Records
---
Amino acid sequence: MSDAHNNDDHGGELEPVEPIADPGLPEHTWRPTDVDPAKEKRAERQVAGFFGLSAICTFLFLVAYFTLDIGDNWHVIAGFGASTMALGASLGFALLFIGVGIIHWARKLMADHEMVEMRHSARSADEDRETTLQALNDGLEESGIGRRPLIRNSLLGATGLLGLPAIVLLRDLGPLPGDKLEHTIWGQGTKDKPMRIVRDGIWTPILASDLEIGDLVNAQPDALKNPERYGIDPIEVEGIPLQVHKSKASLVLLRMNPDDITPGKDAKGNSRENWDVEGIVAYSKICTHVGCPISLNERTTHHLLCPCHQSTFDLADSGKVVFGPAGRPLPQLPISVDAEGYLVAQSDFDEPVGPTYWERDYYDRW
Amino acid sequence: MTAGDMTKVATTNGTTPSAPAKGANKAGAIANWADERLGLGTTMKKNLRKVFPDHWSFMLGEIALWSFVVVLLTGVFLTLWFDPSMTEVHYDGSYDPLRGVEMSSAMASTLDISFDVRGGLLMRQMHHWAAHIFIASMMIHMLRVYLTGAFRKPRELNWVIGCLLLLLGTIEGFTGYSLPDDLLSGTGVRAADGFMKASPVVGTYMSFFLFGGEFPGDAIIPRFYVMHILLIPGILLALIVAHMLLLVYHKHTQWAGPGRTEQNVVGYPMLPVYAAKAGGFFFIVFGTIALLGGLFSLNPVWKYGPYDPSKVTAGSQPDWYMGWPDGLLRIIPAWETHIFGINFSWNVMLPILVAPPLLLMVLIALPFLEAWITGDKREHHLLQRPRDVPTRTAIMVALMTFYGLSWAAGGNDIIAIKMHLSINQITYFLRGAVFIGPVIAFMITRRWCISLQRHDEGKLLHGYESGVLVRSPDGGYAEKHLPLAEGTAYTLTARDRDLTPETVEEIEASGLAGRQVRLRKLRAKLQEKFYSDNVQKPTAEELHDAQHHAEHELHELESQIENGPNRHGPTPGH
């Protein structure tokens, strides 16, 4: 729009007269420190006093730094560490006293007469605008950018192409996903050596008889501790690879009354009736919503609740979502027992675990 | 510029005038040296005594600025020890409950900073406290700017910069609290991985590229670290500088009052008063953060332990400023669409990938939307009271209500436990409340503002309630109203009258056609709604008449007091 007039775009009608005329700035009143030398002197002493207190606090900070030990004294004073408290308090007050002193100085002793400054409009003066516009036009004219579309367009095209290297260079940030999200280490068991299910943390194999009805056990694949048993290079299950495996293979075992279980269907449409061992079912611990480990067990209902966003899954009914934002049931791991009676995985999960992603397929299990 | 009467001001901070010190010549020489190279004389000519108006609410942005400085200072300290690496090590520092536990170097060095570097835990906690205060004060500052109309022309671009600062501050906070690689923050990063995977088409690729492979990989902490200490702070700093330069160029807004107009700015000069107050305030903010850092523990990562993808703690929550999208993520129904072997995860996309950017865009658009509706293209430097623009105030309160309810949803598990409620019922309630609540809040706020306007008008026309009740001879009671002081009355009237919307005839007479006419009609309708029921300030005549009437009533009451049973003091004749 043309901004030639700033304040009367909606003029036309006359604004009614202001009901009350501006009485102008109120009379300045002198502070006690302006008129009473004794008070002025006192304020001066107060300000210096604050600065002095600050110096004392700084000194205390140094004393605390060199005298209070940290190390294994971290629990001194309410499990908090005497050093941190003393350093924080002394540093805090050293800073606060400087601040208070300066502000006290400003309020009591510096001139407190308000000043008036006139504003300017944010826009430049007409003359300046014209000069600038002229300069811009001259420059553009002399460059000939308007007259030489061939140069202009080829430049735009060539510069635009330079965006590609910028994007391509980021390609090596990470590998392509491939089918990595579709497999877990549970699939590395063989017919002779099916993957044992072991307790998370203590890594001992589990007998079906170890679990009572209602018991929940956090479990991991045995390969994470005994890779050689399954022909896996130990380097594959150390450090970061270990974390990667855990973030997909973590399991919860729950024992319930076998009669409570309503077996669903697997990916091929067959019944899941042989996926449990005497009422012990195994489900992925990774929530299908955004991937938190699910951990809260409602013992009486065989419901499992995710502590992050409260999605609730029914482990008696193929991991069906009974509440919350998760869109998919929990993946179930088919289990059986090996020759020694320990719980083992029959195979890998028959679907990807963890949060939903774009190209992830889905099958209905009911 | 008027310097004012300084005759009585203490010029020396002492009782006797000081003789020019020896240093004065030296200072002069230095100034001369600098000016001959930098031309400071010209640039500083106006700025040294630049005037800043005073009001407590102008301090909120200052808190944000100073807490950012504290974040920078403490952050530099932390970088000296922090090792942003995900290499697994066995912790062998002073904190015995975790000694021997395998964890990433990032976590181990965080523990070292906390337990083996003197003052390290203090700095860590100050850094985190200052970050909380930085974001909180930005939000409150933004509310102040919006509710007082300080965002209006010519300051719209500074509003946009402010919105971007809030966004960057939030990302900066998230990347920052993810760095220690503890159980809580790792859970947050895992959720972020889920968010990325939910993105259409490129989700898995984004996840694999960011994490350098499959989650958790070994790249995310170093990459977050670079974003956290270099990329985002650099942009933040540049935007803060731009924010401040524009503030200086536009000059600060001020409240209306006697002598304070659209054309001037009244306040204290930068040197010395404002520099002292603002500088002193830096120490106050810094000191407060130091006290918080020393006395109030937060984010005790040593209690959470190192990240393990198979573990989680109950009550896992992000830092509070990430709480509202997390709340939406909790209350959204389980909406996913599976079609042709692909997934649309609405249950993640809507709360995380759509809602926050949408809210940010709404915030950025607010000044432009309001200017379009009101058609107000004037510059404004006087602030408005929230009650004087009821629709604007109501819009923000509606947004705040949405934010607050979403935020509460982010703590639905805690609310359920602490208040012994059913988490299911809380969730069902909030699903409706996040939509209905803002509407109710909007209506209540709007009417509330209008009622406050009417109260102001009453005070202006009829005087304020003195609290003196008078009984008339026939037994009725009336309260004595006294006229407002001139300055107060002027301040109440020192605001613009609302602009009048175009009428349909005017629009049709304009000779335009089609879409333009429809747009202008829509605008006129919205403008009508925006201003409807507002109380305009009285004209000089109305005010005069009303005051005349009020004076008359006052006289009547006073003569009743004079004659009637309301007489104070001993009855004559005794």
Note: Chain B touches chain A through 150 residues (CB under 8 Å).
---
Amino acid sequence: MTHAEDFDPTLHRYADGEMTQDEMRTFEARMEANPALAARVAEVMALNEALNMAVPSPQATYFAKMISNISPDISPRSAWPRRAVAAVALLGIGLALGYWGGVTRSAGQGGVPESQLLASASAAHMLYTAEVLHPVDVSGDERDHLKTWLTKRLGAEVRIPTLTQEGFSLVGGRLLPAPYGAAAQFMYETEAGQRVTLYLTPTAQAAVTSLKFNTHDGLTAVSWQDPHWHYVLVGAASRSEMEHLAKRVHGDVI
Amino acid sequence: MAKFKAELEAALPAIWRYAYALTRDHARADDLVQDCVERALNKRHLWSADRPLRPWLAKIALNLFRNGLHRDRAHLHLAYDEAGDTSDLPVSETHMDARLDARRTLARVAQLPEEQRHALLLVTVGGLSYAETAEALGVPIGTVMSRIARARHRLKQDPQPVQLRSVT
């Protein structure tokens, strides 16, 4: 059974109201001559209708009220319960990413198990990227302070990569516990709020590894070591986008 | 600021419907849209007045959803949603069956690959044009069309009721 009409772009443009009057007339003539096409259009339109029926449509006044209830920069709304919910959920994802990291770990690599690093990094990512009010301890505006502080706390010189060319600005950073010792997390975001985090922790066992990718539930973690730091870059982006960012970070920190 | 708020208000119904389709819960859709409004108000200096607001807001909503929190809640609540909870729908006896079917269809959309789901929902539920959807997702219009075609094809191929998934 073929589904040629399923992938006919004009069918979708018709059903989604993307056509001009002329295009619609032409398409309707085609439908009259092609019952399979007409049947598929009916199916697609029924699907659209079902989706719209499943979603309520609040009145405009509802949104006017919502906007007036929100003042910029002030939002004490339920910060703690949300954190708690995130904390429960992130355990699953952190463990899942860590599990894959464990499976794909190359033999003979000493130091901290990669699965633990991935689990810690992705758990921290899930916890803090969801924060609207306090995503970081030290803001990106205080870059020098952030660098000095974390260098002191981690006992090795910390470099903060710049990703502005990729459209990501530094939100800031924080100190975190690591499987053995401490780690730093830097958060970056695009203008539209897409967030990625870089987790790094120093290691006494020097090694240089290639980039490793782990994906779970829309979250991608890229990890590598070079030479005295473990890095894990985490984000909800495609593998190629994450690879590009990781290479940029990699180039920036050495 | 007044102009921005007026445009924001005009754009929000579409964004709310998209948020609802993603979270399948009235309160969580509210949360997501409120976060979206907060962010838009805080970052409005980054928005240029000659650009349409809806794709930008849709992109913010998508990122907030991906950033974890709203998505996690959707997972935590999945078991209830798919058990046929219709408490937030207006109950009308004659339309009950149709609404239950509609609800199941929406639950099946949640099982689509992410990129297909967002393209389909922005266009059908959010009412965004292909061009607006392309801008929100940061992909060419042709990609939007092919994602929508694949989503609809997959929904046709897989009409059986969704299985309950683990709530982790």
Note: Chain B touches chain A through 65 residues (CB under 8 Å).
